[in-house]
Automatic annotation (TrEMBL):
Protein name: DNA ligase (ATP)
Organism: Plastoroseomonas hellenica
EC number, as in UniProt: 6.5.1.1
Domain ATP-dependent DNA ligase family profile: 129-262
Keywords of the record: Ligase
Primary enzyme class: ligase
Amino acid sequence: MGKPPPAAPKRTARRLAPSVASASSVIGAPSRYPGFIEPALATLVSAPPVGPRWRHEIKFDGYRLQARLRSGKVSFLTRSGLDWTARFGRALADAVREIPAAEAIMDGELVVEDLAGRSDFGLLQGALKAGDSGPLRLYVFDLLYLDGRDLRAAPLSARQARLQELLGQIRGPVRFSEAFDDPGEIVLRHACRLSLEGIVSKAIDEPYRSGRVGIWLKSKCSSRQELVVCGYVPSTASSTAIGSLVLGAYENGELQHVGRVGTGYTARIARELYQALEARRIDRSPFAKKLDSAAAKDARFVRPELVAEIEFRGWSRDGLLRHASYRGLREDKVAAEVVIERPQMPAATEPAAQRGGSR
């Protein structure tokens, strides 16, 4: 197994032992090799859930990928089903081929780590743009299909144990994403101290369910949100660069204005965004409601096609971003699916035994 992300020192977080299932265990129902599987998504909560049925993993700062192996052929699909195999070079695909299976489908996240071992979305974008596959790492955290059997109906504990055994001692860019059975509050505290993005808590007794259904929960160290790029304000220092982005999100099917972001750009990124947005210019505002004069001042509107990841401190009373900073474009996200994520209250404790599941 490769080096796990630095979620917490060993003395404070107990990694899971691969004792839930053995390598000879047969789980899942016989099934033909499926097509693209819609990913399970995590619901944002204000604090991690508590109770023995929850395990906690590091929230990575990268691209969600579905790694697929079939008769020696490897493919990598984004969360929306786009085939990005050609973007990642041979090393990643070769590592998946080392898995002792004829057919497999794994869920994971592609990252590039900094010198401290933290995943960094900016470094990932830079590596992909440069065509440098050397630093790419794929952390896998779920096993959906294996050698003629669909594992999605099996509990998470069994799927992860089988995945961990499947990877065995494989070295290289494909690695098992460690989980922790310490209280979520402790794991999150350590993640935040290490300047990580946050954690994802998962119910160990549940099957794999596509979509956002409340059995995967995410707790963040800082507020981040994908938002739709709806326009820009030109730079005052250059005629071929942006000064800020005009952003929105969908609510009840309508595109709503959520403010601007004017920090987080290098000079190169500001020029690249200008070129990308100039090609998408439109004459009228794409928002459902007319903007007031302050919001519309100097704005040049574009087709709402691109998605940007934004880090911010909170929301104003009128629903606008506060102290926002640009993190990068999200090519793996569909603009029409971008909605505001508002934290829910954490899930109540509910022992697995009361639900008929196993720990």
